[in-house]
Amino acid sequence: MADIDGIIVRAAIAGREYLRLPRLWLRSLRHAPLTRAGLTLPDPAGEEISSIQAGDAVTLVFGYRNGLPATWSGTVEWVRPGSQDQTEVGIVGPEKPFGTRFTQSFVEESPEAILRWALGRAGVEAGRLDSPGVVLPRFSVANETLWALAEKLELSCQRAFGLDASAWCLWMDAKGRAHWGDFDDPDQTTVYTVATGGNLISHTPATDAAGLSEVETWLVPGLLHSQVFRLVDTRRGVNDEFRALSVRHEADSGRARTFIQYGSEHDRW
Q1: Distance of CA 134 to the CA centre of its chain
Q2: Per-residue confidence at 2, pLDDT binned at 50, 70, 90?
Q3: What DSSP line would sit under 92-158, residue for residue?
Q4: For residues 43-58, b (16+ Cβ closer than 10 Å) or e, as one string?
Q5: What is the pLDDT of residues 5-46, one digit of tens each?
Q6: Among the residues of the chain, which ranges form H helices?
């Protein structure tokens, strides 16, 4: 098990374990269909780039040596040469079934019933699916992805019934269950705190109403979008909880950081 300044960073690809990674990043983004990650592998002999294939299963393990590391799984999307003696690997998360395409029409169905049907056809376990409290007289999709179907349901509710669906989102939790609605991760048990004088490295507030504020802190293993964190910035007078809209973890030979973005979820259409 390798460590970088007390940080565990390792991976398993198609059953082969890599105990030393020059670089790792993982980004989860609310209102985006896929979680993405990237690895840099040492490859002085050029063996890794020829042995890794698109579609190979990947498991990432990262965190602190004296704590419980986070585990995240996905599949290889692409492999390409990196700098000298290295190979770059692009990875996508378990949300790939959100790309399943449908052509179907519905009459007098609720949005959550339509989405539950589509999730079942795509082989995705349904978690919490909130109800907008309406029935759609007519709804159809023509060769559209599951992700696009969910967004179309949100748009239909907003335009036809005047409901604010800006913060509604289809997303997948760490257990592979799909959730839909305006709520935080229902499985979160601990609220991580970023505070002045402790682990707050920088806090950059948004410069306009449409932008997102960003917090830089030490690596927070396991934190993903739609989870809640507390920000205590005494210099700016901030002490509140926020929903993470974007979380990016980065670890390399010199540092390990987590970047969290938060703010208003605006109309996307």
Answers
A1: 29
A2: very low
A3: E-TTGGGG-EEEEEEEEE-HHHHHHHHHHHHT-EEEEE---S--EEEEEEEEEEHHHHHHHHHHHHH
A4: beeeebbeebeeebeb
A5: 488 899 999 989 998 889 999 999 999 999 999 999 998 888
A6: 48-51, 111-122, 146-161
CA end-to-end distance (rounded Å), the chain: 46
Helices (runs of H) and strands (runs of E) counted in the chain: 3, 20
Q: Where are the domains of the chain?
A: 3-96, 97-181, 192-262
Looking at 1.10.10.10, 2.40.30.150, 1.10.260.40, 3.40.50.1000, the CATH number of the domain 192-262 comes to 2.40.30.150
Tens digits of per-residue pLDDT, 43-92?
Answer: 888 888 889 999 999 999 999 888 888 999 999 999 999 887 899 999 99
pTM reported for the whole predicted model? 0.93
198: left (phi over 0), alpha (psi -120 to 50) or beta: alpha
Q: Is 14 left (phi over 0), alpha (psi -120 to 50) or beta?
A: left
β-strand 23-29 against 246-252: which pairing, if any?
Answer: antiparallel
Q: What's the mean pLDDT in 224-246?
A: 97
Does the structure show a pLDDT above 60 at 245? Answer: yes
Q: Which CATH number fits domain 3-96: 3.20.20.80, 3.40.50.12780, 3.10.310.70, 2.30.300.10?
A: 2.30.300.10
